[in-house]
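Propose amino acids for all 455 sites.
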């Protein structure tokens, strides 16, 4: 058995990013110049000596000021492995200890021979303030290891009702590897054959998502409207606590919005029709209850912790506007909960010709339909801004296709639109990007105008 590895790192390096008063520039400098060097050194320690240097790709980074910085990297190993591997890295503040190794999961990964070409699945710094884990090892998700074993995948695919064909070459790619939180895989079943996306859970949330998708599919199919659909064939495999979804071909509506603007008209209108059908469908009492306005506001405030640390003034402004949104919603009439998607955004809609496919039903449940509408309006604005397109035509197309609604629902949707803009200001605007403060300021100002009903 290999001795517990350690790498020597700069003790003060993570403090650049973790010190609350360090500022945006310190975080950007750490992520852009220091972290890649430290991660590359750790990756090398986990690989056999020799061979070409790995190529790192930052997938996602999250900073909790004064506490922790976590990052997910894709690691390309062209000379050793044809598929990019992912690693999860954590840096913690002085006095804290970074996550330790998952000994049992790593042992199983070796036994199943799914760790190669890595020879270790974990490494930590000598000061215990940094550690790195290698996919597919995660002690919180022990099933992740066997879901990389092709022998196990054959049985899992059989449980979904899919056939792989004799001699099919199964491949596993990591889409998301968030240590202790969530994982998504793409399983290929051979050239010319359909692939599957696998979402792995710590509980039975995946079962609820599959059931909700089936209910949504029934709601859409019952109308005979072919503009939108839910991909058939979602299956929950309880033994692995994993939901299997057949891959949908097409283009994300988010990409269409950003790249082509007006070409998104059919997709936007189809999305609106689909959402209206969900909202008008007979509610299934088996659906969970979606977070209410107070819970969504609390999530927005939690997201803004980084904003508070980097710019207390902007953080204060955002919190003030969140309070105003709650005041507006409290003064509006409510309606009985309907079936809602819960995460209705352009990334969860795939365009194929003039048809859209709805994805990701993890948050589907009974809730305020205005929350779905508001989130989509906010997401349309984000995409249009990214592509330099006017958003008003997309909003008009969506609302026209959604159809007549009570004034109170539209007013609540406008409030949710503002709330989601505030969350995006805190979450989506990259700290590493140029003019971070200016972009956040403008985003908050737009939310203010939206809440006032002027957009």
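Proposal:
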């Amino acid at each position: 058995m290999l001795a517990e590895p350690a790498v020597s790192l700069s003790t003060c390096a993570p403090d650049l990013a973790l010190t609350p008063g360090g500022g945006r520039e310190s975080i950007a400098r750490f992520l852009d110049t220091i972290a890649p060097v430290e991660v590359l050194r750790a990756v090398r320690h986990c690989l056999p000596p020799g061979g070409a240097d790995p190529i790192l790709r930052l997938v996602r980074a999250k900073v909790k000021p004064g506490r922790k910085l976590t990052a997910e990297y894709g690691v390309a190993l062209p000379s050793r492995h044809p598929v990019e591997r992912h690693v999860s890295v954590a840096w913690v503040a002085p006095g804290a200890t970074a996550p330790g190794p998952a000994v049992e999961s790593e042992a199983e990964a070796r036994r199943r021979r799914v760790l190669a070409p890595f020879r270790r699945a974990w490494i930590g710094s000598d000061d215990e303030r940094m550690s790195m884990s290698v996919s597919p090892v995660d002690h919180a998700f022990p099933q992740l290891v066997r879901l990389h074993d092709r022998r196990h995948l054959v049985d899992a695919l059989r449980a979904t009702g899919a056939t792989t064909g004799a001699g099919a070459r199964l491949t596993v790619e990591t889409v998301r590897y968030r240590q202790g939180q969530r994982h998504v895989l793409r399983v290929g079943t051979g050239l010319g054959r359909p692939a599957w996306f696998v979402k792995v859970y710590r509980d039975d949330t995946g079962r609820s998502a599959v059931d909700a998708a089936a209910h949504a599919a029934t709601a859409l199919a019952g109308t005979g409207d072919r503009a939108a659909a839910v991909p058939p064939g979602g299956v929950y495999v309880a033994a692995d606590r994993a939901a299997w979804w057949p891959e949908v071909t097409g283009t994300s509506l988010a990409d269409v919005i950003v790249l082509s603007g007006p070409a998104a008209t059919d997709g936007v209108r189809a999305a609106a029709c689909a959402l209206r059908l969900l909202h008008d469908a007979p509610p299934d009492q088996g659906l969970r209850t979606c977070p209410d306005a107070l819970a969504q506001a609390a999530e927005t405030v939690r997201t803004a912790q980084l904003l508070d640390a980097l710019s207390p003034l902007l953080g204060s402004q955002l919190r003030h506007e969140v309070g105003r949104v709650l005041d507006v919603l409290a003064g509006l009439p409510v309606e009985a909960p309907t079936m809602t998607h819960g995460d209705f955004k352009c990334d969860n809609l795939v365009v194929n010709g003039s048809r859209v496919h709805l994805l990701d039903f993890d948050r589907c449940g009974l809730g305020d339909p205005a929350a779905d509408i508001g989130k989509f309006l906010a997401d349309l604005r984000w995409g249009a801004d990214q592509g330099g397109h006017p958003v008003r035509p997309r909003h008009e197309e969506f609302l026209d296709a959604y159809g007549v609604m009570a004034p109170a629902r539209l007013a609540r949707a406008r409030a949710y639109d503002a709330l989601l803009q505030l969350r995006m200001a805190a979450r989506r605007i990259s700290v590493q990007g140029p003019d971070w403060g200016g972009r956040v300021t403008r985003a908050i100002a737009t939310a203010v105008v939206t809440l006032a009903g002027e957009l």
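The chain has three domains: 6-102+111-134, 147-246, 251-451. The mean pLDDT is 89.
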